[in-house]
Specification:
Number of helices: 11
Order of helices and strands: HHHHHHHHHHH
Strand content: under 5%
Largest sheet: none
Structural class: mainly alpha
Shape: globular
């Protein structure tokens, strides 16, 4: 197996293991997770923004050229994600959750799919993880440094996403053990995304490169449309300040990781 493909596989598996550990630990650390998740999400926004705008997009332009097709791919990716979410909500329906239950699910973890049935919720999660696995593998295929930063970005938003899945599945009436299994299992599609990129190999490097603007568009969409609005509910001044600082720290972290000497 090619070294970069192996590194990408390790990164993809590592992200899903961390997400699984977070879900399994939820019942033991629920109070801590409630307090920490807003700041994890803030860091995730910073990492995703910096990874999309400072790493993946410039890599796209350097590899494919600064042409309109690259920018159109980025914009169309964001429009496609918006369209998918809107259609998904219309098809699945919005659940009529009691206010306190909806708030509890929100606090336990970010999740923008309020599906009325577990199957529709899991469909969205499987699709999301497939895109994540493809993004990580595509980034490694171009540059391992960008690959690790992309894996970090995916991990920081995948953990709250997985916790949100778990909370909503429990709210839908599933036993906690079964809900944990399904929430963790949905991340398995990330391996399929890795497999698609790995199958293309070096002979498909040009095709893989076109996944970079797709990844950049998905990261910008997730950070600006899905995650950032989640932070707007906070009204405590000190908490807002910490969220801003965490967001800035996430950006510094993502930018700094590719400037480590010898990295």
């Amino acid at each position: 197996m090619h070294t970069r493909a192996l590194q990408a596989l390790i990164a993809v598996i590592g992200v899903q293991v961390l997400a699984a550990v977070a879900v399994v630990s939820l019942h033991r650390l629920e109070a801590w997770l409630r307090r920490a998740l807003p700041y994890v999400i803030s860091i995730a926004v910073g990492v995703l923004l910096a990874t999309g705008a400072v790493h993946l997009l410039p890599e796209s332009i350097e590899t494919l050229g600064n042409r309109s097709a690259v920018w159109m791919t980025l914009v169309l990716t964001m429009l496609a994600l918006y369209g998918f979410e809107r259609i998904f909500h219309l098809v699945s329906g919005v659940s009529a959750e009691p206010a306190q239950d909806a708030e509890e699910a929100h606090e336990l973890g970010h999740h923008h799919h309020h599906a009325s049935r577990p199957a529709t919720l899991l469909l969205g999660s499987v699709t999301h993880s497939l895109v994540d696995g493809t993004s990580v593998a595509a980034a490694f295929a171009i540059d391992p440094r960008v690959g690790w930063v992309t894996a970090l970005a995916v991990g920081l938003h995948e953990i709250p996403h997985r916790l949100g899945d778990f909370a909503l599945l429990v709210h839908m009436g599933l036993a906690r053990g079964r809900a944990a299994q399904l929430a963790i299992g949905a991340g398995g599609s990330s391996l399929l995304g890795w497999g698609v990129v790995a199958a293309l190999g070096e002979h498909g490097s040009r095709q893989v490169a076109w996944l970079l603007p797709v990844s950049a568009g998905s990261f910008l969409y997730i950070s600006l449309v899905d995650l950032l609005p989640e932070l707007q509910h906070e009204r405590r001044p000190w908490a807002v300040l910490w969220q801003i600082l965490c967001l800035a720290a996430g950006m510094v972290l993502a930018i700094g990781l590719t400037h480590i000497p010898g990295a």
